[in-house]
Specification:
Elements lengths: L14 H17 L13 H11 L4 E5 L4 E5 L14 E5 L2 E7 L1 H22 L5 H14 L11 E9 L2 E7 L5 E3 L2 E4 L3 H10 L1 H4 L4 H11 L4 H6 L5 E2 L5 E5 L1
Parallel strand pairs: 2-10
Antiparallel strand pairs: 1-2, 1-8, 3-4, 4-5, 5-6, 6-7, 9-10
Length: 247
């Protein structure tokens, strides 16, 4: 009868299912207190939490051709009363990165990368090699996963730059992995962004700079004419050939 129905609809769930969910939560809680404890499934949960923070961050994408690399990110504030947070950070004259995840963690990595570039230029009188610096950042990120008193960086980076070998695009992960790409997207809606990049990937290599920027804007669902009507600006350095578009 209606008189015997429970007041809380969740009480209609089978007791065995509720017990199973509680047991799963308890098991996960046992193994996510630090980043050096493996779960029975062979997972490090704190590292996975950091990776999830990157997936839920602001979308950032980058793509390159033979001579240029373009970095695109959203430039927006959390509210009308707040100032926007920078999602594109300049590291050196030939290097920058876009971030998705915790901005504070990205600031720590930005300071480290800038110091390394300054030290390298002071000692060798030459710009820092992009691949070498990315490898050092990956090592620094991986060290955070081996200390129980630390936590992984909750930020993913798309590092772009140009050197004597041409343009480069790297992705770094909180786990310490890093990869080089011709085109890549991270953050929210990155799955649809990757689908777009894979669809038009064959056109990127022979594109000029304007066409490359147009691909980036279309993927971010911003029409090229909207860039002219908004306060966003396209910054392009004369040497080296970098371009990034804050939206």
């Amino acid at each position: 009868s209606r008189r015997n129905l429970p007041a809380n609809p969740s009480d209609l769930v089978a007791p065995a299912l509720r017990k199973e969910n509680l047991a799963t939560m308890f098991r996960n809680h046992q193994y996510d207190m630090d980043c050096i404890t493996w779960s029975p499934n062979g997972r490090i949960l704190q590292v996975e939490y950091a990776m999830e923070a990157v997936k839920q961050g602001t979308p950032v994408l980058a793509l390159r051709n033979k001579t240029h690399v373009v970095l695109v990110a959203f430039k927006r504030a959390q509210s009308e009363l707040a100032q926007h947070q920078k999602k594109i950070v300049k590291i050196d004259e030939h290097m920058a990165f876009g971030l998705s995840g915790l901005t504070a963690d990205a600031a720590v990595l930005a300071d480290y990368m800038r110091n390394e570039c300054l030290n390298h230029r002071y000692v060798f009188d030459a710009p820092m090699n992009i691949g070498r610096l990315v490898a050092q950042v990956a090592d620094k990120s991986q060290q955070k996963t081996q200390n129980s008193s630390k936590r992984p960086f909750g930020v993913g980076l798309l590092v772009v730059g140009c050197d004597e070998k041409g343009p480069h695009l790297f992705e770094t992960c909180p786990s310490g992995n890093y990869f080089e790409y011709y085109a890549m997207a991270i953050g929210g809606r990155s799955t649809s962004a990757k689908t777009y990049l894979e669809k038009y990937f064959s056109e990127f290599e022979n594109c000029d700079l304007d066409a490359l920027v147009k691909h980036g804007l279309e993927e971010e669902e911003v029409k090229p004419w909207a860039l002219l009507q908004s306060s966003s600006r396209l910054w392009q350095s004369s040497c080296p050939p970098l371009a990034w578009v804050p939206l």
